Amino acid sequence: MTTTPGTQYALFEVAEASPLESPPTDNPEARFSDYVVYVDESGDHSLASINPDFPVFVLALCVIHKRHYAEKIIPAVEKLKFNYFGHDSVVLHEHDIRKQKGDFAFLNRLPVRLEFVGQLSTIMDTSNFLLIACVVDKVRMGKSEGASTNPYHIALDICLEALREFLAEKKQDHLLTHLVVECRGKKEDRELELEFRRIRDGSALGRGRLPFDIVFADKKTNLAGLQLADLVARPIGLNYIRPAQQNQAFDLLKRKFYCDGGRAHVGSGFENVGLMVYPPHKAKSPDEPTEAITPIENPQST
Description:
This protein is α/β, with parallel strands linked by helices. Helix content is 36%, strand content 16%. Helix 1 packs antiparallel against helix 3 and helix 5 crosses helix 6.
């Protein structure tokens, strides 16, 4: 269905196209876009101490149409939780699911784990969200830029520019789009907000102000969008570290990345469009590996 950019959605209507309800007439600049963005990361942003098992930092943006999010994604996630936990207060957390910890200890039984992961994968596969991500190779970055550089801030700048391009394609770059990020701590949140506003206001590259605002949400708010973002970040990093290793989660995510050519080219043409790597790869010499490696004194574990 087609709706006017900045549509206001009827609260109890789901079957028909939502009309434009009472649009603001005195200040059209204040209207919101049809998209909401949920942001999460995988890996830490320290360059002083690099984890040999995961020597990258990944920032992932899940860009979701609000109607689809409200009417399809949230109900599906809620039903999954009701089916397995009897209530919906559980937060889907990739680490706990993978390690079978806490609320997910019941996944230590293989048949149950396969069933649960299968249903969760179905939600991810059928959910229409667009993925924008940046992988920061901390080993390569540390050598070229020093330990004081913040990978989170660099990845955010790169991802926001790709988000702007997507919204421009949708003719919604004049409307306000919110990015929802999970609270990490007062100091970290304050630093991130300052960097976000520096990038948004255009002082980073001399460009115009970006039509974004940031919202900090506590994990206890239990937002389905943040939980989707949490589930996608680590597989992206693992694919970069070990590209030859089977990665079913990344194979699914390939079809979600922002790419050249639109829907006709889903699953291809996303490198340097919806999936960026920093520092950018140069032409490789014959002995240069394609994946991230750690220093010799910290060999990559398998």
